[in-house]
Amino acid sequence: MAIESPDNRPKRVLFFATCLVDQFFPEVGEATVHLLEKADIEVIFPEGLTCCGLPHFNNGFRGEARKTLETQLHLLEGDIPIIAPSGSCGWMLKCVLPTLFPDDPWAREKAAQIAGRVIELSQFLCQIEMREFGSTLPGKTVYHDSCHLLRGLGENQTPRQCLDHVAENREELPNSDRCCGFGGSFCVKFPEVSCAMLEDKIKSAEEVDATWLVAADAGCMLNIAGGLSRRKSKIKLLHIAQALAGPHNPGWPEGY
Amino acid sequence: MSSPFNQRANSALVNIPLQDALQAATGKFANQRAHAFESTAAPLALRAKAREIRRKTFDEIDKHLETLFTNLQNLGVHVHSAPDADSAKRIVLEIARKHNVETVVKSKSMASEEIHLNQALEAAGITPYETDLGEWILQLANETPSHLVAPAIHKTLKQVQDLFRAKVDPNAGSDPQELTSIAREKLRTEFLRAGMGISGVNFAVAESGTLCLVTNEGNGRLVTTLPKVHVAIMGFEKVVPTLRDTLTLLSVLPRSATGQKLTSYFTMLTGPRRENEADGPDEVHLLLLDGGRSRHLGTPFQEAFHCIRCGACQNACPVFQTVGGHTYDSVYGGPIGSILSPMLRGLEVSGELPAASSLCGACMDACPVFVDIPRMLLEMREARTVKKNNALMERFSFRMLGMVMRKPFVWETGFKLGSVFSRFLNAKVAAWLPGPLGAWAQGRELPRIAKKSFRTRWREKKRRGVDSSSAANGVSQADSPDAIIEKTHHALELAHGLSHGHIDCPDGPLPEINVPDTVVRFATEFEAVANPALQPSSIDDIREYVLNMAAKWKEYPVAISDGLPVEVAGWLMEEGFDVISPSIDGDNRDAIARCGIGITGCDWAIAETGSIVLRSGPGHPRLHSLLPETHLALVPANNILPHISSLGPELESIFKQEEGHSASCVNIITGPSRSADIALTLIKGVHGPRDVFAIIVPDVLIARSQ
After folding, report:
1. Which of A34, A58, A254, B450 has an alpha carbon within 20 to 30 A of B400's alpha carbon?
2. Long-range contacts, stretch B117-121, CB < 8 angstroms, 24+ apart
3. A218-237, pLDDT tens digit by residue?
4. Across the interface, do B355 and A179 touch by the CB < 8 Å criterion?
């Protein structure tokens, strides 16, 4: 077991799987659980969790987002870290959730307490100083900065630091901080613009001849995966949890 | 039926020349911006300070506007207030009629675009000339600007050439320099005969009544100097409390806009021409346009007024980069435009714009004053829902989705059904469907809902007993990892759009770059923007430099300002040059316009930017450094200040003085007149000097010569 400084590690964490991971990328959830358990951390997954409410919040339905989160507050209570495998959902819980209950002191306090415990997966892995993942990623790896992890949570270091522990050859993706064109409902409200942005993203990965394109947000992945298969691109897309867990381990995509 | 934004976007996406231009331009600007802040001592602190200035201004906007108006009126500036476009146009036309104005020269003004002033002038029989090169091109083409600082960013060289051939000169070539010369000649005539100049305002300094213009071509200076009447149009958001605040904002504006440390000209206009000054307008008007602004003060959208119109958010925005400014169908395009347009024109007209963003936050990241555009886009979307401005179907779907999300069982069952359904649907079929599925499938394969969701797999894993624990929820006192929680960055605020976390405004003065030797630094920076600075060691050296330079313009008269550190007029007259001295009574514009070279002193110079600062006054006409093709400044070494901010006290002593002593105009000149409005090619000498030279005069030589 590759644990270097077990003192700073919590015994348990709560896994906020996010709806996209739950329903579209269950392997990402498995890879995350694998990583956490590898670090000797017990994973709690409350099955009543559905969605963080970001789709509603981003589309101007703050009230709906509030109601959705209100019904889940009790599931998130406690004092253990809450791990989000997506920057956008992490941002929603960390930065937006506490602002949703201005007139309800009880919920506001709960929300603030919950928000304070939310941490994105790669940030958490760096925080517990996990360095040995027991796997390597052969070929060339590039990382796409998801907008919400980069600019919502202000994080561009931890995903790279983590990847550097497993990637044989990690290069910077040109314009890695440029949006892939997902943007939630944006990608279906403005499909042509969104697809043009997506095309740019895929082209930059192809230009550097990347083997693995790694993202840390299931939203970006949904979009990029659709574009890659439409173009029949040979670039392989991975969530950072999958990249870190590595081939032959739980959560590795079928056919890779 | 695709939406209006989508229709415009689609034509932009297939417009190859536009795509090429957009890629080149936005990429270039964004790249230059990224490097421009490297020349400041503390870029983030500087921007945080600039944000603080903008925030505080709007805390007491009433007070600052009152101070501004009082100071303007004391200076003799006529202040007008227009609630809407119609009254604004009426006011401008009344002023024009009073002075029997036939032609108007205009420098870039977004406020005048807002009210469609040109059409109103034309309807009244007055010919307006846009004089910013890009704006003039658009006026010829009968188009609107597509970018805040590069209005003709969407036009290729070939398109400009064809336009010039059709409208200006049938023999126009294809060289941007040649096209620019054609524009210079044509517009110079108009400058000299126009009865009225109309400009925008970049900053209106409350404490001194100073109206500031940030320009590169020199047309802003000409518009506000040559015509007898100057009308400036602005919204209240241009107000800045103090001169020192203005210099801070000046340090971020050009860097964010074009990547320059300073633009060629920063012009500070303070009232009409003084009696003892040779040039400048006799009458100055400030027109304050409300145009839907004031109703947003004190609302979540007030922050949009912090914008200083640099265009950085447009260059950074992946949507703007993809579709260009015209797709927004508004005076203000791009991210900030998606807030400003619905604010000024109403959600009914521009309600689609706030949705046309992926909320990536690159705009706020690039914004010099950190305007939280993503937050306001969200607020705007919220306002749309509250006002029921969005489609009924959208409201219904999101409500339904919300209900399902709150019932985990229904949620899970729904996905299970969806999973089965999605097996029978491929993208080819889906592309024909209306709604989100069809939209998705246009350029992407459909995502597959997993046969086995994570929660199903989780249950199976637990049943297999691989999992070591069966705790329902991790409430535990023993393993409280406070350290971890505290270390996760910025807590509970809706800060969105910054790739570098939260920024606090520093207390006290901002750090400055170290300038150990002002002369050396000035010489280096001056050379970077203009020509090598000449450093004479004797009076004879100076004589030689001056005569050599004048010799290039042998056939032309030389304009010489009074009170130079070394008296050069005598030398030139000895050599047979026709010397034009400052006129005492009104300007001698035609004589100066004939000069090949204008020689001025230098009231101050700025080492960190290589700038020359000139104040107007008796014997110091504004036009000497503007009309001739070459400008030579004699810079006393002692007058070189290290930083832009060092100018603060000097400006205060000029502009805050009691009436009678102050100057009507101070210009910070950084290099020659320039433009990149034609196909992004840098051209010098658009409206002002093509060449600027400096002779640094050591103190000992000044003493010896006097």
Report:
1. B450
2. B117/B88, B117/B89, B117/B92, B117/B198, B117/B233, B120/B89, B120/B92, B120/B93, B121/B92, B121/B93, B121/B96
3. 999 999 999 999 999 999 99
4. no
Please give the pLDDT value at position B664. Answer: 95
Which of A148, A182, A227 lies at the smallest CB-CB distance from B443? A227
CB contact under 8 A, A192 and B399: no
Q: Which of A47, A95, A195 lies closest to B442 in CB terms?
A: A195
Q: What percent of chain B has pLDDT over 70?
A: 93
Asked whether the predicted pLDDT for residue B482 surpasses 50, the reply is no
- In order of their start, the domains of chain A are 12-125 (3.40.50), 132-245 (3.40.50)
Band of the pLDDT at B661, cuts 50, 70, 90? low
Range from B23-32, B109-118, B343-352, B684-693 carrying the lowest mean pLDDT: B23-32
Chain B CB contacts of A29 below 8 Å: 454, 457-458
Residue A174: predicted pLDDT: 95
Q: Is A253 on the interface with B (CB under 8 A)?
A: no
Helix runs in B14-156, H state only:
16-36, 43-59, 61-74, 85-98, 110-114, 117-123, 133-141
Please tell me which residue of chain B has the smallest CA distance to A30. B454
Q: Helix, strand, coil proportions of chain B in percent (round to 5)?
A: 45, 15, 40
What's the token pair of residue B217? 């071509």
Domains B61-294 and B518-705 share a fold: yes
ipTM: 0.95
- Using CB atoms, which residue from A56, A115, A188 is nearest to B402? A56
The pLDDT-based confidence of A161 (bands split at 50, 70, 90) is very high
In B, which residues are within 8 Å of A154 by CB distance? 489-490, 498-502
What is the model's pLDDT at position B389? 83
B467: pLDDT strictly greater than 50: no
Taking the mean position of all CA atoms in its chain, how far away is CA B97? 31
Rg (CA), chain B: 29
Q: How far is B471 from chain A (nearest CA, A)?
A: 7
Is B1-39+297-389 assigned to CATH 1.10.10? no
Q: Does B383 touch chain A (CB under 8 A)?
A: yes
Residue A76 CB partners (closer than 8 Å, separation 6+): A14, A16, A46, A49, A82, A93, A114
**How many Å apart are CA A26 and CA B453, to the nearest integer?**
6
Q: Which fold has domain B61-294?
A: Rossmann fold (3.40.50)
**Closest chain A residue to B408, measured at CA:** A48
User: B476 and A11: CB-CB below 8 Å?
Assistant: yes
Chain B positions touching A53 (Cβ under 8 A) are: 405
Q: Look up residue B187 and give its two tokens.
A: 């517009």
Domain ranges of chain B: 1-39+297-389, 61-294, 391-455, 518-705
Residue of B293, B288, B344, B301 lying closest to B66 (CA atoms): B288
Give B334-376 as a 3 state SS string: HHHHHHHHHHHHCHHHHCCHHHCCCCCCHHHHHCCCCCCHHHH
Q: Is A110 near chain B, with CB under 8 Å?
A: no
Contact residues, B window 436-455, toward A, CB-based 8 Å cutoff: 436, 439-440, 442-450, 452-455
Task: Name the minimum distance, in Å, from the CA of B72 to any CA of chain A.
Answer: 42
User: Residue A43's pLDDT is what?
Assistant: 97
Helix (H, G, I), strand (E, B) or coil at A216: coil
**B395 with B388: CB under 8 angstroms?**
yes
Name the residue among B382, B479, B496 with its Cβ closest to that of A11: B479
Give me the residues of A, 160-219, that contact B with CB < 8 A: 177-179, 181-200
The pTM score is 0.93
Q: Which residues pair with B366 in a beta bridge?
A: none
- CATH architecture classification, B518-705: 3-Layer(aba) Sandwich (3.40)
